[in-house]
Amino acid sequence: MLTRDDTWINRSDLVNDYANIVEAVPDQQLRDQVNNYVLQQLSKKSKQNEIDAAIASAYNAFPELFEYYIRYKEDNGEEARAISKEKVDESRRLYVEQFGEFVRAVRKFSDFYGHAGNTVEEARARRCF
Q: b or e along 94-124 (b: 16 or more beta carbons within 10 Å of the residue's beta carbon)?
């Protein structure tokens, strides 16, 4: 099923998980360089969109961070599977169970399925409730 959800690897997580990703960098010097790079672009009055832009800019300045982001996502792959299972379960509840209940209610309380609906008059006669 198609959804409008972000993929498991996406830009917003790249920015939102910045602290975890930089923390996962084993090279202390690189961590310090990245953090200093971001901090130099900010002021004490920086708004969230400015912080996000500085973080995004750090990925361009230090492309090796992408590798750590991918590794971070891979290490947390169980979370992706859990989220996917939750979405599948929710879709099943919505599309199979709830629509099934709706069809049963239509059959019980109307003659909706008793009309062919091939003509305008038949379609008008084919009201649910």
A: eeeeeeeeeeeeeeeeeeeeebeeeeeeeee
Indicate whether 68 and 93 sit together in one domain: no
Report the distance separating Cα 14 and Cα 71, nearest Å. 12
The residue out of 55, 75, 95 marking a domain boundary is 75
Nearest Cα residue to 34 out of 71, 60, 72: 60
Q: Cβ distance 15 to 52 under 8 Å? A: yes
Q: Is 65 exposed, middle or buried (0-12, 13-18, 19+ CB in 10 A)?
A: buried
Q: Is the pTM of this model over 0.90?
A: no
**1 in a structural domain:** no
Q: State pLDDT tens for residues 77-109.
A: 777 677 778 888 888 888 888 888 888 888 888
Nearest in space to 69 (alpha carbons), one of 29, 20, 123, 28: 20
